[in-house]
Amino acid sequence: MSRGGRLLGVLVTFRRPHELEVMLGRLADQQRPLDLLTVVDNSPTPDAELLVERYRAAGHEAVYLPAPDNLGPAGAVALAMGRLLATAADDDWVVLLDDDNPTEGPGQLAELLEFARRMRRQDPRLGAIGLVGARFDWRRGQLVRIRDDELTGPVPVDYIGSGQFPFYSVRAVRAVGPFKAELFFGFEELEYGLRLRRSGWSLYVEGERLRRLRLRWGRLGVSGAPSRRLAELTWRRYYGLRNLIHILLLSGRHDAAIRVTLLVGLAKPLLNAPRDPRRSWRYLCVNWRACRDGWSGRLGRTVEPEVRSPLTIA
């Protein structure tokens, strides 16, 4: 075991062989390589398995794990976490990786691992660190962007964002369990961060690093206030709203779930109806089904991601 625990990567892929190849190449070039990479393929193909075999043949420890069905990111991560817990030590780390979000430099994993180890020394209840995170407003049921003037030193957050290289402590994962597979897609990282926080674990991002990222992205000074306009209507919209309501209800926050249902689910499309009635009506139909399923606990893969319109409900 390396000093400070092993680094166990979980990479979820779905019909993106080119992106997977790029990601594996970036991982192979890391100054601090993964001790083990588990690639969960939500649509198993010989091409993806061959890419993992080439990565392994180059001297890297890796496991190709074909999913029995499309489990979504939540189910795939839950599957991998469950497998890893059987052999992982409490001091190990699980880092989540996306096939379409490669590392940005050969030192990225090493730098994040050093931050994780440093925070563990400062906070024995460290649950996770990552590049980008946010806090959660329980009254309004929405994420709150960290203010620019807070971006110094370690910054406590309530969750680590999707694709932001979260490092989860195996000790914390063992204590609270893996991802909630039933969410399938959308806010699975939020549910997990809030679960860690409720159980007394801490999550941090590195303020200076996040400030540099905002400068690069041109987002320093952006308020982060939610837009009143309707975004593009896709299947992702359904899952995000459904899962958010479910997470609030799971946490006993019925007041916030009602607020999200009324304001986000119903009022927002109705307010946009005079400007774009046809689109608003479609939005309202999808939101109604998302709210209904969130309140009734109808989870899992209820909308097919491959379908352009999210109105096809399983």
Description:
This protein has 314 residues and is an alpha/beta fold. Helices cover 43% and strands 16% of the residues. The protein has helices at 17-28, 46-57, 72-85, 108-122, 170-176, 188-198, 207-217, 235-250, 254-271, 277-296; strands spanning 7-13, 36-41, 62-66, 93-98, 126-130, 133-137, 142-144, 154-157, 159-160, 167-169, 202-206. Strands 3-2-1-4-10-5-11-8 form an 8-stranded mixed sheet, with helices on both faces. It has a 3-stranded antiparallel sheet with strand order 7-6-9. Helix 1 (17-28) packs parallel to helix 2 (46-57), helix 8 (235-250) runs parallel beside helix 10 (277-296) and helix 9 (254-271) packs antiparallel against helix 10 (277-296). The termini are far apart. Residues 309-314 have low confidence and may be disordered.
Please render the helix and strand layout as text.
Layout: E1 7-13, H1 17-28, E2 36-41, H2 46-57, E3 62-66, H3 72-85, E4 93-98, H4 108-122, E5 126-130, E6 133-137, E7 142-144, E8 154-157, E9 159-160, E10 167-169, H5 170-176, H6 188-198, E11 202-206, H7 207-217, H8 235-250, H9 254-271, H10 277-296
Parallel strand pairs: 1-2, 1-4, 2-3, 5-11
Antiparallel strand pairs: 4-10, 5-10, 6-7, 6-9, 8-11
Helix pairs in contact: 1-2, 8-9, 8-10, 9-10
Strand order of the largest sheet: 3-2-1-4-10-5-11-8
CATH class of the largest domain: Alpha Beta
Bin the helical content: 40-55%
Structural class comes to alpha/beta
Describe the biggest sheet?
8 strands, mixed
In percent terms, what proportion of residues is strand? 15-25%
What does the radius of gyration come to? 20 Å
Low-confidence stretches: 309-314
Terminal Cα span: 46 Å
CATH-derived topology of the largest domain: Spore Coat Polysaccharide Biosynthesis Protein SpsA, Chain A
Number of domains: 2
Mean pLDDT, all residues: 92
CATH architectural type of the largest domain? Alpha-Beta Complex
List the total number of helices.
Answer: 10
Q: What is the H/E order? A: EHEHEHEHEEEEEEHHEHHHH
The total strand number stands at: 11
Principal-axis shape:
globular
